[in-house]
């Protein structure tokens, strides 16, 4: 059986992708997770300048899911390139998430990361098959310690920042502006992470693709809050955050279904994927790949279990590849 998938020009050995945020800068789960279960991981969102993020508390378990309010805390792109990219020597592809408060910030981030990827150095003998080429080709791998990037994920959907984030993904015009700016600034494959718009997601998806997106991530967390009844105050320091986990799967599944029907680029599904059944539902709805996150906080063995379940399903139904049943529910 072929469990690999193709996202634009990038070949993944597995349809599982570690969602942005849960993997920090990429290496934080080494020793805890089997990275070989993943086709790729997405780094936490990187911005031009360092961000302190939102005030604590930043995380609350609400039973049916988790609300986070990190606020895109990160070290900034220069420190990321200098201190974290050199350690990204993983047995899977690496997608870097970028975010900004202005269109120009997205373009500058893409340009800086693209410039890093243009430096050609000899192949690494200990990392066969890995490519640093922004165009996804089999160009030389890095041996100068500068790390590897296989694609950019453009975050226009974060619900817990005051400026930027989800604002850019709320209408087709602003989506087109950001994606066009990034597309012009980089040769890397561009994946656009759209917000969970119940109404109008088709227009936003089309705008992103018209502007040059190679793939879409559908979708992000949902705006949510929790209240401490003893203190009579919101639990989170920023009052609200983004809900992830099993509670959002049925809604996100509908959005993936809608997106897959209106555009031709690959869809990276995200939202409450905790079991192989969840993953298979998303593939049947039209997803090419599956982003998982919150479940890892509960069970580090979940990725391997999900992959084993997908393989069993394929054996049972006689499918030779993921593509054999992708979108089959719509036939």
> What is the count of helical runs?
8
- End-to-end distance, in Å? 22 Å
| Helicity range | 25-40%
Radius of gyration: 19 Å
Low-confidence stretches: 120-131, 138-146
Which CATH class is shown? Alpha Beta
Q: Can you summarize the main beta sheet?
A: 8 strands, parallel, barrel
The CATH architecture is Alpha-Beta Barrel
| Overall outline | globular
Description of the molecule:
- The protein has a single domain (5-330), classed as TIM Barrel.
- Residues 120-131 and 138-146 have low confidence and may be disordered.
- The chain has helices spanning 77-84, 103-117, 172-185, 201-210, 249-262, 276-285, 294-298, 302-317, and strands spanning 5-7, 10-12, 16-18, 40-42, 59-61, 66-68, 93-98, 151-155, 190-194, 215-218, 222-224, 227-228, 233-234, 241-244, 267-270, 289-292.
- The protein is globular.
- With 331 residues, it is α/β, with parallel strands linked by helices.
- It is built from eight helices and 16 strands.
- The strands form four sheets. The chain has an eight-stranded parallel beta barrel, surrounded by five helices. It has a four-stranded antiparallel β-sheet with strand order 5-6-14-11, with no helix packed on it.
């Amino acid at each position: 059986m072929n469990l690999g998938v193709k996202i634009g020009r990038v070949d993944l050995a597995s349809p599982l992708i570690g969602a942005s945020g849960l993997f920090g800068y990429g290496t934080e789960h080494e020793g805890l997770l089997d990275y070989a279960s993943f086709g790729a991981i997405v780094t936490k969102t990187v911005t031009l300048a360092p961000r302190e993020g939102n005030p604590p508390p930043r995380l609350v378990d609400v039973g049916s899911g988790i609300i986070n309010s990190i606020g895109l805390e990160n070290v900034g792109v220069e420190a990321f390139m200098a201190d974290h990219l050199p350690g990204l020597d993983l047995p899977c592809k690496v997608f870097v998430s970028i975010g900004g408060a202005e269109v120009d910030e997205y373009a500058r981030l893409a340009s800086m990361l693209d410039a890093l990827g243009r430096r050609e150095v000899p192949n690494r003998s200990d990392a066969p098959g890995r490519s640093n080429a922004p165009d996804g080709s089999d160009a030389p791998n890095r041996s100068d310690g500068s790390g590897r990037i296989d694609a950019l994920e453009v975050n226009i959907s974060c619900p817990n920042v005051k400026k930027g984030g989800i604002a850019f993904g709320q209408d087709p015009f602003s989506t087109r502006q950001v994606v066009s700016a990034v597309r012009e600034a980089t040769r890397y494959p561009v994946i656009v992470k759209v917000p969970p718009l119940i109404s109008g997601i088709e227009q936003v998806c089309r705008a992103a693709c018209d502007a040059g997106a190679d793939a879409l991530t559908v979708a992000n967390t949902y705006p949510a809050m929790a209240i401490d009844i003893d203190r009579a105050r919101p639990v989170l320091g920023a009052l609200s955050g983004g809900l992830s986990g099993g509670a959002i799967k049925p809604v996100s599944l509908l959005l993936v279904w809608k997106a897959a029907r209106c555009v031709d680029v690959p869809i990276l599904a995200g939202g409450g994927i905790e079991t192989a059944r969840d993953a298979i539902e998303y593939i049947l709805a039209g997803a090419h790949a599956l982003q998982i996150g919150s479940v890892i906080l509960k069970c580090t063995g979940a990725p391997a279990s999900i992959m084993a379940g997908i393989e069993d399903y394929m054996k049972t139904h006689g499918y030779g590849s993921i593509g054999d049943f992708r979108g089959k529910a719509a036939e």
